[in-house]
Automatic annotation (TrEMBL), chain A:
Organism for this UniProt entry: Planomonospora venezuelensis
Keywords recorded for this protein, A-Z: Sigma factor, Transcription, Transcription regulation
One GO term of the biological process aspect: DNA-templated transcription initiation
Protein name: RNA polymerase sigma-70 factor (ECF subfamily)
Pfam families noted in UniProt: Sigma70_r2 (PF04542), Sigma70_r4_2 (PF08281)
Cited InterPro entries: RNA_pol_sigma-70-like (IPR039425), RNA_pol_sigma-70_dom (IPR014284), RNA_pol_sigma70_r2 (IPR007627), RNA_pol_sigma70_r4_t2 (IPR013249), RNA_pol_sigma_r2 (IPR013325), RNA_pol_sigma_r3/r4-like (IPR013324), WH-like_DNA-bd_sf (IPR036388)
Lineage: Bacteria, Bacillati, Actinomycetota, Actinomycetes, Streptosporangiales
GO terms for MF: DNA binding; sigma factor activity
TrEMBL record, chain B:
Sequence ranges of Gly residues compositional bias: 249-268
Lineage start: Bacteria, Bacillati, Actinomycetota, Actinomycetes, Streptosporangiales
Transmembrane regions listed in the UniProt entry: 58-77
Protein name: CU044_5270 family protein
Keyword vocabulary terms for this entry: Membrane, Transmembrane, Transmembrane helix
Amino acid sequence: MTAPSRAARPAVGAGCGPAAPAGRTWAGPVPSAAEAAGPLSLDGPEAFGAVFDACFAEIHRYVAQRIGTDHAEDVVSETFLTAFRKRDAYDPSRASVRAWLYGIATNLVGRHRRQEVRTLRALGRHGPDADAPGHDERVAVRVSAQSLRPDLAAAVAKLDRRDRDVLLLVALAGLSHEEVATALGIPYGTVGSRLSRARRKLRAALGGGDPMLDPEEAGRG
Amino acid sequence: MDELETLRELYGEPQADPFLGARVRGRVEAGVRERLETGARRRAGAPGRRPRRPRLPWALAVAGVAAAVTAVAVAVPQATAGAPGAPSRAAAVSGRSVLLAAATTAAAEPAATGAYWRVRKLHRRPHPEPLGRGGNRYRVAESRITELWVARDGRVWSGSRELGAHPAGKADEDAWRRDGSPAEWSSRGYVLSTAPEQGRLRAATGRVPFSMAGRAMTFEEIQALPVGAAALKDWVSRAVREELAAAAGDGGGAGTESGAGTESGAGGPLDGVVADALSGLLWSKPSPPAVRAAAYRALAEMPNVRYLGEAADERGRRGAAFSFTLRTSPEPVRRTLIIDPGDSQVLSSTVTGPPGSGGDQVELVLEAGWTDDEPSAPGLP
């Protein structure tokens, strides 16, 4: 048994939709989901401004993870402009604004494939922004030696683009199968098959069983 | 850690330039304005005349959103910290006698009757988000088995086996079938599967295998705990205060002074943590019989440990239910233990989570005590 857990990963995107991946632990109560500020709509510039403010940080995080911060600014701007341009095509009954924005961002990231591969190579060799100022805590939390995974980065780079899109929308954006399907405009069942294929390849790259798996808390009381 | 978590670790958190949001907002705003102007010009059909700038009251809209968010945060209903209904004096008396009876049973147990002390638990935890498609939503719960093996010389092994995620109740199961009985879901960056995984067993080398209220403890330290109820409670209270002070010191925060007063009969703010640490000695650690008995006696004297009467756990095993509040803020979290006074074993623990946790977290003790079996990876239940 443990004292109530204090640590939780910073919630991302509160107000835009469900929080992006939160730390998952068997110890202590699960942190509650960030409540959405209500349904977002794209009707009118005011509403669009609200969508921008609610979703910018989350979309930027995702794009910057995939193609690096230098290129993310342009792509994120383009994502919101595209969303505004195509706002008449948005159907709130089919997708959340959040999933729709992720879909647009993913399509735009797809035009920067070489940049994505370069970003992955850098992540595998040097880790994510390890020398960025203000990141001491996060860097300290990670076991930095473990996060250097050239093998894993190479495996992600080698994935079919469509498989990679599904994988990263699940792993980085925290979307559900349904949201991925609407974001990318693909059938629900296709999400599962692409995800399985991508995960299989990652597992192979990581070399089967993960010795780091921690059967935590069995005896930690 | 699964491959998706490893992947997130690889990607890390990108750095965020503090002015980036405003900068991109400016760009998007300009782009939107340009687009609206182009549209207006096209409609006006008069290229020579400068169209009126469309009004973009974003600042206002933003203020409105911020206010709405604040309102939502404030509007979260404040649940009361206390449990419903104060216990009657009679219930308090009988609860105390149940715990004292369990203490007597615990004290009478032989110290070690096998090569290993072993506890095997079934854990069930609701997934915090509903799954499914469209209007057809349902909840699933994830289960796993954990085992802890402790040799008489203090060596420790821990085992675990994920049992997969399954619909939480009957209505959830029906909704799951309507969803096409999927065997996998993605949610919050994780993939949940109905399939059980392989069991794993790991020797706890290179780390202190036990902890109490955040304090790392060795097998020897557990064997050396005080065997008097008051002395044990004092020891635990002190450990709780020191761990909290250390944690606050790490974070540079203050406010640990309020932790004083756990020895007082009135009950201090840390009583929940103290009760939790004491109860951990009953069912999650290889405590010697005299220490278990002392823990039962100490719990019997704690005013925040409430007797709920007879109850059955999810396997239908009957016992006496006790509960205490683990924390009161932001939302109250309670632990309810069902114990069997006949053999002093804890049968189950239920943590009633805060809103948003998706439901109760249940642990069922499947086996506890001494055995001559050799440590091995956990089998299916």
